[in-house]
Design brief:
Chain A is an alpha/beta fold and 432 residues long. In chain A, 37% of the residues lie in helices and 21% in strands. In chain A, helix 3 crosses helix 14 and helix 4 packs across helix 13. Chain A starts with a strand and ends with a helix. Chain B has 566 residues and is an alpha/beta fold. Helix content of chain B is 31%, strand content 21%. Chain B is built from 18 helices and 22 strands. In chain B, strands 1, 2, 3, 4, 5, 17, 18, 19 and 20 form a 9-stranded mixed sheet that branches. In chain B, helix 4 links the parallel strand 7 and strand 8. In chain B, helix 5 runs antiparallel to helix 6, helix 6 crosses helix 8 and helix 13 crosses helix 14. The radius of gyration of chain B is 22 Å and the shape is globular. Classes of the chains: A alpha/beta (432), B alpha/beta (566). Chains A and B meet through helix 3, helix 4, strand 8, helix 5 and helix 14 of A and helix 1, helix 4, helix 11 and strand 14 of B.
């Protein structure tokens, strides 16, 4: 059986033209996906955890789903300051269920946003976000800037589907009609194919953005001859191109959100785009990483009012990233339980945070054993969004797409697991 | 069996011509009936004012741009947070509240039905996800067609049937309710950072004018037999002198429907400005109202502005950009490929500012100058003019000249030279308010057939009991009490279930979503139209097979199938 137009929910590109060939409920081949997507559909299937496991005295033992759920419910009920973390690989239905679980038990809920585009959100909360859907870029953009990101490695089909290579309604010949500018601190595979590459000395993004803003504002005479390794001449050239293009799109990645300056870098980039809109049309889009990290921001926002780092411990939704974000709570050793859904903080958070996970009850709901598994008390494998589960998933530009289930397995969907936890905890709390 | 006997209700039900009669209302299984059994829950309305559930015919509460308004505004979230009480979720937000906050606050004010003002088809799933989290109101989504490339191509080719077929396919695919045009043509021009200045100016690259889009869509709407009419946000919103555009647009509309208007103009306050700059801007409500009176086939809503902080949000991307260049506050924009645009900025309407004072007056004038309350619906274009929680203030202002005079002393002193408001002595009565907040909406939206907007037998049992005795109060003098009474019902009953008592939500309800499914033959079915499919897959960034919203997003959908000649 061939499943046409399947969705790869691995990264924020959310490619929805994947063709998956299934024989005897096994995925046998995948067309159109990039190497990351193919691996997700094919090789990764063999690495899935077979069933729930529990660590006791340094030993792992297999347990039933019922036992795993019972134990998790008990731990959730005992917890005084639980942290619910991850969520970015799950569908929004799961994320919404997670937010309601957090309300119920007065937990802190945070997604992987906290260690990727959290600073972008802080900048947007300061100055707004002039953006667009990716088809707008495909059909119109003459100038593309990738700043602090390497799409060829991290979002392999971004250039071919949305920005650089596809012909569009107004771009009849993408090769001739578009130019791509890559701005980064190092040469990458993406910079190799750029029409213009701007290499900034590390830590210089804020200054270079400021220099471009000054030139666009007509104050270029104040810009020094070089700015963090970038020649003024090149900046003048780029600013001129940006003002003259009919439609420009800037994409940015962790190179500016997680380097010195953080959200101030992003704010500067947004304000550059604001300024360019006085001359022509420009938009800016964060290159969101996890397949549905944007969905977590959306679902948390319509439920709590805030995109991430929400603390329900006082009965209201309270938001103060830096205090209520997962890294800070773990670093302060404040939480006494961590429920992790579809993410690997053991590999991605600072050591001081991940090592603390081993000291408290840590429950992982994730299809695969990963670095966090070794720190966990219980791991419950679940079905995978876009493979053996389907749900709403938000692309990096906010377009919601429903994934397709291509095979059927015995794994429970994480939404059902969270629902069960919610109902069980609620039943006990109702009797108190 | 779920039964309620609401005793001693002082009912105003304009659809059935009932004006202040003391009635015992019977409700069974979600509907008004003529009797109930002994098992019915008995509620005592104490002779209080009892109306059909409120209906908002234009409000932004769910979907991509609303949620982005929340996302970018933690300040606004902090301005409206409340702890969880009983079965209520904790809530946040003042001008762009969370979905549960919207739902609870609307319900406390007696509202049971809301039309979301603008849904981009490409992002429809998001709207429906939020509808599911707005449990106490039945929902509908106005669907945006203002910059739709396929539509503009059909308009250019003067192919009305194809335009109608595309609308029909899209509404059915995205589970939409009606046709919304926001600055038609202007949102496409905004793709290049431009706007359209006149309804006769050509949209760049597409060879059609806003006037052609509007007239074709009106005809397509009637060809599809949609319950609601075309719902239009005119060109040039917020521009001094734009009343001329509005009048010109009103001239475009033919009279094609016996049951309701043929054209619905939304938030007309923002479209009734004279002058040529902000310096000489004035009110042109007299011209607009005169035209409205001469056009029985046009209905409008107010788009009232109230002083204070709020968030503006609209599909009209170029307008939000202009507002940004005035306010220099934070600005968000979100163009939607092949379809429409959108923008958001926070604003503060300042009573000391002349322009804001004129805007405040204009909304009220539209309501007071319209002789026929069935043609003017009470809205703030929530949250653009003000958050909906301030509707009671508008009701009180419309019912009391004394209140308006009291406010007039606090606003910009030159306002009176620019507006006719203070010469108007009309004071609306409860019957007219009932028309402007539910009955007219039910008629205009075409949902009378769904039992909405009235309390006759076989009406949907949506009922609001406001703690006020209409015979013993003089609204002209006691406007504060009027405002208080409309803020919080004694009872709100939705679909035959008592959902809110004294403003507290007491049950977890599940709402319904109305959507339309025009019946179209294979000849005009876009699902199998090769040209449509090819263009779709070339220019959209999603595959056509992944575009339609499946019915599991509408778990309690009410599908309105319409007959068409296509």
């Amino acid at each position: 059986m061939k499943v046409e137009d399947a969705i790869c929910a691995f990264c924020g590109c959310l490619c929805d033209d994947i063709v998956v060939e299934v024989t005897d409920n096994q995925i046998v081949s995948v067309d159109n996906a990039c190497s990351l997507g193919s691996a997700r559909f094919l090789e990764d299937q063999e690495n899935r955890l077979k069933g729930p496991i529990r660590q006791e005295g340094g030993e792992w033992r297999d347990i039933s789903y019922d036992e795993a759920i019972d134990a998790t419910v008990s731990l959730l009920l005992e917890a005084d300051r639980p942290l619910l973390f991850g969520w970015s690989s799950s569908a929004t239905e799961t994320q919404a269920a997670g937010a309601h679980l957090a309300e119920l038990i007065g937990a802190v809920i945070d997604s992987t946003t906290t260690v990727c585009h959290g600073p972008s959100i802080l900048a947007i909360q300061e100055v707004g976000h002039p953006g667009c859907t990716l088809g707008q870029v495909k059909n119109r953009a003459e100038t593309i800037i990738y700043w602090g990101c390497n799409p060829i490695d991290a979002h392999p089909r971004h250039m071919s589907r949305y920005s650089t290579y596809p012909d569009g309604f107004f771009i009849k010949n993408a090769f001739r009609d578009r130019q791509v500018i890559v701005i980064d601190i190092r040469k990458t595979e993406s910079s190799d194919i750029a029409d213009i590459f701007v290499q900034i000395e590390p830590g210089g993004d804020y200054a270079v953005l400021s220099a471009l803003r000054m030139i666009v504002l007509g104050k270029g005479s104040l810009v020094p001859e070089t700015v963090f390794g970038v020649a003024k001449e090149q900046l003048l050239h780029i600013a001129n191109l940006c003002k003259k293009t009919r439609f420009g799109a800037l994409f940015f990645g962790l190179g500016i959100t997680m380097s010195r300056g953080k959200h101030k870098n992003v704010r500067n980039a947004i304000e550059l785009i604001d300024e360019l809109n006085r001359h022509t049309k420009w938009t800016i889009t964060p290159m969101r990483g996890h397949g549905n990290v944007y969905g977590s921001n959306e679902a948390f926002t319509w439920i709590s009012g805030y995109p991430y780092a929400i603390d329900y411990s006082r009965g209201i939704a309270f938001y103060n990233p830096g205090e209520t974000s997962a890294v800070d709570i773990l670093r302060r050793k404040e939480c006494d339980l961590c429920l992790i859904v579809g993410s690997d903080p053991g590999a991605h958070l600072p050591h001081i945070c991940s090592s603390y996970l081993a000291q408290i009850p840590t429950i992982v709901i994730d299809p695969y054993p990963n670095a966090t598994t070794h720190l966990a008390t219980i791991q419950i494998p679940c079905a995978i969004n876009g493979i053996d589960a389907a749900g709403t998933t938000y692309r990096m530009d906010g377009v919601p797409i429903k994934t397709r289930k291509v095979i059927t397995t015995r794994y429970q969907c994480d939404r059902d697991i969270i629902h069960t936890l919610y109902e069980r905890v609620k039943a006990v709390k109702g009797h108190e | 069996m779920n039964e309620i006997l609401l005793k001693n209700a002082c009912v105003i039900d304009p659809i059935n011509g009932v004006c202040g009669e003391l009635i015992d209302l019977c409700m069974k299984d979600g509907w008004i009936t003529d009797s109930v059994s002994e098992k019915a829950l008995i509620l005592d309305a104490q002779g209080y004012l009892t109306l059909p559930g409120g209906i908002d015919s234009h409000s932004h509460v769910c979907g991509t741009k609303v949620n982005f308004g929340r996302y970018m505004s933690p300040n606004d979230m902090r301005a409206g947070r409340e702890v969880s009480r009983g079965i209520m979720h904790p809530i946040s937000g003042y001008s762009v509240p969370t979905t549960y906050a919207n739902s609870y606050r609307y319900s406390a004010m007696g509202y049971t039905t809301i039309l979301e003002g603008a849904m981009a088809p490409l992002e429809a799933r998001h709207t429906h996800e939020e509808f599911m989290a707005t449990p106490l109101q039945d929902m509908m989504a106005n669907t945006l067609f203002d910059g739709n490339w396929n539509i503009m191509e059909a308009v250019h080719n003067k192919d009305l049937k194809r335009a109608a077929a595309i609308v029909g396919w899209t509404l059915s695919a995205v589970k939409g309710f009606g046709i919304k045009l926001t600055n038609p043509g202007g949102t496409e021009a905004w793709g290049w950072g431009n706007d359209i200045q006149s309804i006769h100016e050509e949209v760049p690259d597409f060879g059609v004018t806003p006037a052609e889009i509007i007239t074709t869509m009106i005809q397509a709407n009637e060809m599809l037999n949609l319950p609601h009419s075309v719902h239009l946000h005119c060109n040039n919103l917020g521009m001094p002198g734009n009343y001329a555009t509005t009048l010109e647009t009103m001239d475009l509309a033919p009279d094609l429907n016996e049951k309701r208007q043929t054209l619905y103009l939304t938030h007309v306050q923002f479209h009734s400005y004279g002058g040529s700059t902000w310096g000489d801007m004035d009110s042109r409500t007299e011209e607009i109202s005169k035209k409205l009176a001469a056009c029985p086939h046009i209905a409008i809503d107010m788009g009232q502005v109230l002083f204070g902080r709020t968030t503006t949000m609209t599909a009209d991307g170029p307008m939000e950009w202009r507002l940004y260049t005035l306010h220099h506050n934070k600005w968000s924009n979100h163009d939607v490929e092949l379809e429409t645009g959108s923008g958001i900025i926070p604003v503060y309407y300042n009573r000391k500012n002349l322009v804001n004072s004129i805007m405040w007056a204009i909304g009220l004038e539209l309501a007071l100058l319209a002789r026929d309350p069935w043609k003017i619906m009470l809205t703030t274009d929530n949250p653009n003019g003000a958050p909906f929680v301030r509707y009671p203030e508008i009701i009180a202002l419309l019912m009391s000249q004394k209140y308006r005079d009291a406010v007039s002393h606090t606003i910009h002193p030159r306002t009176e030279h620019r507006v006719p408001l203070f010469a108007l002595d009309r004071e609306l009565d409860f019957y007219e308010i009932a028309i402007m907040t539910r009955a007219a909406q039910a008629k205009a939206l075409g949902i009378l057939d769904q039992g909405k907007g009235h309390l006759g037998f076989d009406a949907r049992a949506d009922v609001a009991v406001y703690p006020i005795h209409i015979d013993s109060i003089d609204p002209a003098r006691n406007y504060t009490e009027i405002e208080e009474a409309f803020k919080k019902t004694l009872f709100t009953i939705k679909g035959g279930t008592l959902v809110t008592r004294d403003g507290e939500v007491i049950v977890e309800e599940k709402n319904r979503t109305f959507w339309v499914d025009p019946q179209i033959s294979e000849e005009y079915d876009m699902t199998i139209d090769q040209q449509f499919r090819t263009q779709f897959d070339h220019y959209y960034s999603v595959r056509m097979n992944n575009y339609p919203v499946s019915e599991n997003y509408i778990p309690r959908g009410v599908c309105i199938k319409t007959k068409t000649p296509l």
